[in-house]
Amino acid sequence: MAEILQMEFMRHALAAGLLVSLVCGVVGTLVVVNRIVFLAGGIAHAAYGGIGLAIFLGWPFLAGTLGVALAAASAMAAVTLRARHRADAVVGVIWAVGMAAGIVLIDLTPGYRSDLMSYLFGSILAVPASELGEMAAVAALVVGIVAWFYPDFLAMSYDPEFARIRRVPVAALYSLMLLLIAASVVIVIRVVGLILVIALLTIPPFIAESFSGSLKGMMARATAWSAFFTVTGLFLSYLLDLTSGATIILVAAAGFAAAIGWRRLRPGRGEEAG
Amino acid sequence: MDEEPRLSEKAIDIRGLWFSYNGHSVLEEVNLSVPRGDFLVLMGPNGGGKTTLLKLILGLLAPRRGEITVLGTAPRLAAHRVGYVPQNVHVNKSFPISVHDVVRMGRLGVGGRLSRSGGRDGEAAVRRAMEEMGVWGLRRRRIGQLSGGQLQRAFIARALVSRPEILLLDEAMASIDARGRAEFYDLLAELNRRVTILAVTHDTMMLSPRVKSVACVNRRLHHHEGGELTSELLEAAYRCPVDLVAHGIPHRVFEVHRED
Fold first, then answer.
1. What CATH number labels A2-259?
2. What integer pLDDT is reported at residue A83 of this predicted model?
3. Interface contact B115, partner A, CB < 8 A
4. Does the pLDDT at position B165 exceed 50?
5. What is the pLDDT of residue B166?
6. Is B79 near chain A, with CB under 8 Å?
7. Which residue in A99, A157, A225, B14 has the fewest CB atoms around it within 10 Å?
8. Would you tell me the crossing angle of helices A61-82 and A84-108 to the nearest 10 degrees?
9. CATH number of B3-90+165-259
10. ipTM of the complex
11. Which of A18-32, A128-142, B137-151 has the highest mean pLDDT?
């Protein structure tokens, strides 16, 4: 353990994993209780198009990816708010086009092939210190915004109609939530990759939901579970020489199965909210 | 002194209202006037436009034609003075939230953004509403653990926190068993001493001597002031007179009407 931590890339990986856990716990909770996993998937695949664009134009990873993901999230917010029944199809289109554009843009980039896989499965072991700072800034911003608007997000997620009557700006909050998802997805992709980002956004909150009596509690528990899965997966992948992003998700999946088993065995749990 | 004219004003006034969804007509030429202090039950079959009418009154939808006035102003501007109790079938039962936090939502939008936590006054109002509805002892429970009747009372408490002048109930009786209903009506009658009540239902069993007037809506609205429910009225709304006669309800409603 101690010798693993002596390696700088491993310390960076741990820090990145913990930042991602915080973001997944907080934003993933909003994704799960608002039942917009498919929308989050669409944003993630659009972000992949952003990665392609960043590589093609030689921009830094965060700038290109964040820009495209935010644009896609805004488009989805507009469609969902204006024509809810059409949203599914539009999200599907953005999903596919984002992915395809990402691949083609990387194809078009001269002499570039090596990093394609790293963005599909993540590259937690190759996070440089400079990017760690950017990730921390994004994470702080995301968590800060959720904390500031917490009562409003709670009301919107639980009962949007009542929230509207109580003058909560539900449409604006909904759009804000999609932008937060976009920002989160971008830094989570760095760690576990496009294919696994949805798993990390949904599995820990899903486990946390049935054990939590409040949305705050669910966010905290989801963060803790996520951190546990990330750290465990990271060490296992190092010890067994496996792809770290995939290992993290398999650990999370095992936790998911255990949580379901636990719930079946103890159905009476959670009498008091907390 | 400014309060005087407001007391005489109507709680809800609807004139020549038309509404349609995607070209499909839902409400036609609806006129309804609800005086302050009324306890009006709005009946009609599912799909007859009852919930749409409630949403129009709350300002969540805008009429295609016609005019709605709530507490003397536009519905949107009056919405925070109206307590809304939604149908609880729509509620996400697995949502991680305590009964206390659900009722606290009633404080949102009261006194502006910075005082949204409500302060001590807000907490006192939340507690008072929960005690009045008998759910204070359940405050630490998760919302999904309440029975239908308890949930209904928690939602009424949430609506009461902001001291509304009108209470709108959507299918409030659906989740309450026959024995609980009389008790529930006593509770509503008690609230009716200070709040105008408009309750919507598709169930003729919703009627009780506590109700002051009845209207039936099935695209068009038939309002009988004074709480007289005739089989003609129901027939016009439902095109099915049997239901009412079988339950023997008109007698009770007539009795109350004659006493007035």
1. 1.10.3470.10
2. 78
3. no
4. yes
5. 95
6. yes
7. A99
8. 160
9. 3.40.50.300
10. 0.83
11. A18-32
